[in-house]
Specification:
DNA-binding; transcription; 2 domains; Arc Repressor Mutant, subunit A; 61% helix; 3 strands; three-stranded antiparallel beta sheet; WH-like_DNA-bd_sf; mainly alpha; single chain
């Protein structure tokens, strides 16, 4: 009984996640994401037996997103290495040539605020970001990239593009672009 209740709650979460996606594209999104999450013929776990009130792995959006993220992390580690994480690269991209506070960085890099603080601190220890407190507001911390970070980005960005290409590789270009557009609706819902 509890499993059925939880499954209905999960269906509600999935419906809310998919809400920004047009109704006629939701199954398409799940199907494309499943091919990214389970590439190269990796078997998708079979749907649950009749009468078992759970979503199957191949239809559960949160499962597919986690699995695709894990695949992305494995590709990143192999192509880029472990010296700079994908989250650190996202922070570099978020900052760009500006000086931003950590809350803004967290939002732009899609990481939570406490993790952004940890990432920034590690990057500062390596001399890749500078941290300053403006005279006008000593409580505020502004973060900017150092010349060393810009030099590192010249090497990292082509590798990040290779990660992106490999992650998309189970799909033909048109379908990969379509998945990107649909995922953009999920990630940047208004």
């Amino acid at each position: 009984m509890a499993l059925a209740v939880i499954t209905e709650q999960v269906r509600g979460v999935q419906a809310e996640l998919l809400e920004p996606v047009p109704a006629d594209a939701r199954d398409e999104l799940v199907g494309l994401l499943a091919r990214i999450a389970y590439p190269d013929g990796d078997p998708v776990p079979p749907p649950p037996a009749d009468g078992v009130p759970v979503l199957g792995c191949g239809e559960a959006l949160t499962h597919l997103l986690r699995r695709a993220e894990r695949r992305s992390q494995r590709i990143w580690a192999r192509v880029v290495g472990r010296d700079v994480t994908a989250a650190q690269y996202a922070v570099f991209c978020a900052i760009g040539d500006e000086r931003l506070d950590q809350r803004t960085i967290a939002g732009l890099a899609s990481i939570d605020t406490s993790n952004a603080g940890d990432v920034v601190a590690r990057l500062a220890e390596r001399g890749l970001v500078s941290i300053e407190r403006p005279e006008s507001d000593r409580r505020r911390t502004l973060v900017g990239l150092t010349p060393a970070a810009f030099a590192l980005l010249a090497d990292l960005t082509p590798k990040a593009e290779l990660v992106h290409q490999e992650l998309r590789s189970p799909l033909p270009a048109g379908e990969a672009d379509r998945l990107h557009d649909l995922m953009h609706l999920l990630a940047y819902r208004r």
